[in-house]
Structures are given as structure tokens and as C-alpha cells.
Description:
By secondary structure, the chain is an alpha+beta fold. The protein has helices spanning 5-8, 47-55, 80-87, 106-109, 111-121, 138-149, 266-269, 273-277, 293-303, 306-326, 368-385; strands at 39-42, 59-60, 74-76, 98-99, 131-134, 160-164, 174-176, 208-212, 225-235, 240-244, 248-251, 290-292, 338-346, 352-359, 394-396. A hairpin with a 4-residue loop joins strand 9 (225-235) and strand 10. The radius of gyration is 22 Å and the shape is globular. It starts with a helix and ends with a strand.
Amino acid sequence: xxxxxxxxxxxxxxxxxxxxxxxxxxxxPVEDEGESSMTFAVExxxxxxxxxxxxxxxxxxxxxxxxxxxxxxxCWVVTKKFLESIVSNETLLREDQLLSTFPDHxxxxxxxxxxxxxxxxxxxxxFLPETFLLPSEFENFSERFHALSQSLPSQSDQLWILxxxxxxxxxxxxxxxxxxxxxxxxxxxxxxxxxxxxxxxPLWGKNYVISRYISNPYLILExxxxxxxxxxxxxxxxxxxxxxxxxxxxxxxxxxSIEPDLIHDKRIHITNVAxxxxxxxxxGNHSSLKWNLERIYDHISRHHSKDQVDAVRSQISKIVExxxxxxxxxxxxxxxxxxxxYDVLLDQHLKCWLMEVNGSPSLDPTDSDDMRLKSDLISxxxxxxxxxxxxxxxxxxxx
Length: 399
């Protein structure tokens, strides 16, 4: 049996506690102390993960579960199938072993489940755009749309965004202007007057959400953007979560507009880098798709005030805490930690709106800066999860 974390580090002057006690006392970084006794396995090789583990001098071992290879302290999981194969043998996990994903993380990262869990715990959610689940709530959506039509001054105030419940990276997203544009399979009706053109737009699954589109986003250089906020969760109940200081903003490539003939232009409305990179852009502006958070906050401070920056960060903390606590009774604790990617949009009043939460978000870097950010993110996350260091560039969510 492999020694516990306490045994592995008992020679250090500062005590190291087992993962279940999650001590966050400061220790000397592993990379400055010679070879580490810690081992890791990965389901799929990732350059940024290997770079981070190499800097911390962790030893890579096999992840071949079929041959009983459980001789690791950390196993970095990518697919649901691989995770389930480990969780099904959870009794084989030792005290000194952690997996990089919570088995029930879909309760937070699936858009329909997140909405359901928030509704269960809160009558009013002021950071979530008004949302309906499709196809089950299509009639409610249609009634709400027609009720709003009586009071809103223009059609541009009645934009809605349709998203697959369990997809990421911007795939399957469409902006609609009427219930009649909802694809027939999502209307829960045997017949439909849908005008939506399904010929070139395939459905991405059976379950969708449709939300009020935030049509007045805060713009920088006339372009829409959102914020990617990284959150580390090491325990669900009692909640222990940490917000990373080094996120980034993702920009659209074309100037923002809600002119009717531009509503479906993803270069204008969809901030996901995966979508922007695959679309031909007349401006050729792909090199400026990202700003780091520090640059965004500096822009807000210069054009508004530092108090506004503090207000934005406070709103983000509230969003993170509220969503995590709303899922506390449906996500099991255990030998798990996870990095989540929160996507947050600012409107022109600097109010924060939650777009979605990504479980185990992509670690594939888009450039050298992104490589450094994600390598540092992984390194700091692992040290916190195993109780090996201080918080690095994380800030603890206030209890």
C-alpha cells in the first residue's frame, strides 16, 4: 500500500494533511525540493498537463485500468466512460488518491440541470437570464414571448438564444426572434408552424434551453465579449472553492449589432473561441480574440472606477457560490476535485450574467500566453487539492 500524503511529506517543517482534511498551510513549492514522490496518470495526453506536472516533478505512470494500474496519486480524467470505470471500483481508491472530476458534475455543467437546481433552491435568480427548458416548457416560453410582445417597444428586445443542454464550445447555438422559429422536435407538439430552416442546421441532442438574449452587452472596441472565470472545487459540502485570478475575456471578431439581417452572424454574437477560429473573418482579427482578466479590469477601472471592478468581482463570487450551493445535495463528495470554467457576460451597466458552467473545460492552449495560464492553473489546482502549498493565484471563496 502506498504511503499517505502525510507520510510522503513528513520530513517537511510544515505539516501536510491528507486530502480529506484539505490543509492550505503554506509550504515550500515541490519544484524547489528535488524529486517528488507523487505520481500521476492521464487518460489522454495533454501538452499543458504534462508541462505542469513536469514543473512540479511528478512522475507519470500508466492509466491502463484494464491491467489494474491504480498506482497513482492523481488521475486526470477526460471522458465520462473512463471516469465511470474508476468510480465503479471506488473502493479501490486510497486516501492519497484523487480524480480530477466529480462524477456528478453534469448537475452543474449541463445547462438544463443547472437551471433546474437553481430553481429548486431560489425563487428568483438575478444573474441568470430568463430561461425555459425545451421541449418540456415550450408552451410556457411561447406564452411568455407573446406577453412580452405587448409591452416591449421593439422586436430587438425580444431576442432569445437557443442552446443544446449538454454541448460546449458554442456548437448548436442559434438566436431566435419568435417561437415559430423553434425547431419542431423542440416544441413538444405533433404539428408545428416552425419556419426554422433545419436543412443546414442539425439539432445537437434532444434537450435544449432557450434564454433571453442579453442584447445590451458591455462592449470594448465595439465588440462583444464574455469572461472565462476558472473555479477550483475541492469539496462540495461543506463547500470549499477557489476563484482563479488569471482568467481571460473572449472576444467576437466583428463589431456588435442587432440589426435583423445580422442576428445569425456568429462572428458578432458567439464569443466561443472554437467558433470564432473556424469562421472566416473579413477583419482577419483572430489574433485579438483574448484579453487577460487584468487587462479587462484595468479597462473598467480607467473608464469607470476601481469600485466598479470590485463590484464585478463581487458579483462573480456570488454567482459561483450560489450555483455551487444549489448543487450541493446532488453532487457527491469523495476522492475528487475539479476545475470549472464559468462564462460570465457583462451588460452595459456592468451587471454580470451567467451564460454557462463548463465542467473540466478545455485545456488545449491557443497561444503561448494561454499555455502559461493553463499550466499555472493546473499546477496551483493540484497543489491546493493535495494540500501541498498555499493558494498560489487562487482566492478562497468566503465561507
